[in-house]
């Protein structure tokens, strides 16, 4: 709140006055939003990712239309999340080891935010959600996101198939396992990926969604 008040007091400067901060977009206009952004920048450069994220969340709740601030806030958020992804990945691995599936799922989703072009964190998140025994629809949506990020990744399709099977969506599971085979036809086909293995048993007389 103090930061916002200090920023408001400084808006009385002449029009066109600007604020610069190392690493920030150049010529950001002074104002409450720019001040919060500057504080987020400072926290990020000081290695305080959690503090930077708090400032960015505050910024996202503010009403402003400055395109430079909006653009830099988006860029900074991605930088912070990428930097934090390594720590979250370690947390996820530890949570999996301890079979703390809810915690693992949340950590993997944080990794996915920092690595939006990678399917693996979403796959792990979906499997952790499945293990946690929560709402299967949430696990399905997470696994679908993994496939959307990497539609040619056979493992992403297999992960979605596992979640579909858990949700008794057998026809969808078969479709995903067949997609996995198309993505990686040269790979050795295990029972889970084979339409003549597990799918034959599950879908032989119960082909439904």
Features:
mainly alpha, 209 residues, disordered C terminus, elongated, single chain, Serine Threonine Protein Phosphatase 5, Tetratricopeptide repeat, disordered N terminus, two-stranded antiparallel ribbon, 10 helices
What's this model, at a glance?
The chain is mainly α. It has helices at residues 2-10, 32-45, 49-61, 67-97, 101-114, 120-132, 136-149, 154-166, 170-183, 198-203; strands at residues 18-19, 28-29.
Can you tell me about this structure?
With 209 residues, the protein is mainly α. It folds into two domains: 1-84, no CATH class; 99-209, Serine Threonine Protein Phosphatase 5, Tetratricopeptide repeat, CATH 1.25.40.10. Helices cover 67% and strands 2% of the residues. It has a two-stranded antiparallel sheet with strand order 1-2. Helix 7 (136-149) runs antiparallel to helix 8 (154-166) and helix 8 runs antiparallel to helix 9. The N and C termini lie far apart (52 Å).
The percentage of residues in β strands lies in under 5%
Mean of the pLDDT scores?
Answer: 78
How many E-type strands? 2
Instruction: Enumerate the spans where pLDDT stays under 50 for 5 or more consecutive residues.
Output: 1-29, 201-208
Distance between the termini: 52 Å
- Helical fraction equals 55-70%
Identify the CATH class of the largest domain.
Mainly Alpha
SSE class:
mainly alpha
In N-to-C order, the SSE pattern is HEEHHHHHHHHH
CATH homologous superfamily of the largest domain, by name?
A: Tetratricopeptide repeat domain
Rounded to an integer in angstroms, the radius of gyration calculated over CA atoms is 23 Å
For the largest beta-sheet, the strand count, sense and barrel status come to: 2 strands, antiparallel
Sheet with most strands: strand arrangement: 1-2
Give the second-level CATH assignment, the architecture of the largest domain. Answer: Alpha Horseshoe
């Amino acid at each position: 709140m103090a930061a916002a008040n200090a920023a408001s007091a400084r808006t009385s400067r002449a029009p066109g006055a600007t604020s610069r901060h190392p690493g920030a977009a150049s010529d950001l206009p002074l104002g409450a939003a720019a001040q919060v952004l500057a504080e987020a920048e400072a926290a990020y450069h000081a290695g305080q990712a959690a503090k930077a994220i708090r400032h960015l969340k505050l910024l996202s709740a503010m009403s402003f239309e400055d395109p430079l601030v909006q653009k830099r806030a988006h860029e900074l958020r991605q930088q912070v999340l990428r930097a934090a992804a390594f720590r979250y990945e370690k947390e996820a691995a530890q949570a999996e080891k301890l079979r703390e599936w809810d915690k693992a799922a949340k950590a993997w989703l944080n990794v996915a935010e920092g690595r939006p072009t990678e399917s693996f964190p979403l796959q792990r998140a979906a499997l952790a959600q499945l293990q946690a025994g929560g709402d299967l629809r949430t696990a399905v949506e997470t696994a679908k996101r993994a496939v959307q990020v990497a539609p040619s990744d056979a493992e992403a399709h297999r992960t979605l198939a596992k979640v579909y099977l858990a949700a008794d969506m057998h026809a969808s599971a078969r479709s995903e396992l067949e997609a996995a085979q198309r993505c990686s036809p040269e790979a050795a086909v295990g029972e889970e990926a084979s339409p003549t293995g597990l799918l034959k048993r599950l879908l032989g007389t119960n082909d439904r969604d």
